[in-house]
Amino acid sequence: MLMTRTFEDILAWQKAHELVIKIYKITRTFPETEKFGLCQQFQRAAVSIAANIAEGYKKLGKADKLRFFNISQGSLKECRYYCILSKGLTYIDENTFHNLVSEIQNTSFMLNAYIKGVVCNSYIKD
């Protein structure tokens, strides 16, 4: 049985939320010309990770929950690409790149663990 009272109790959501904050802070340093380009796309993808975990949490059916969690995983991969692009454009340095990619991987790992819990439990507490 999953013992959460709210989506905020999910460790994967907590990591995703931290990632959103970091991405917002990092993209503030990007060139002004990227304000409506890469910055907006990067931020949107990051927000999508946490938002879809939150939305999926409250869905009643297992398949519906998993669909939202899968969207979160896709957004994690999208953010990974934006890290690669940001590094290639020299908007972030090597250290920032590795830190972000590591956080993306950790968030993905935690979300996968949560997904396995949802799949393996026939009862899901809402």
TrEMBL record:
Coiled-coil residues: none
SUPFAM superfamilies in the record: IVS-encoded protein-like
Top-level taxon of the source organism: Bacteria
InterPro entries, A to Z: 23S_rRNA-intervening_sequence, 23S_rRNA_IVS_sf
Protein name according to UniProt: Four helix bundle protein
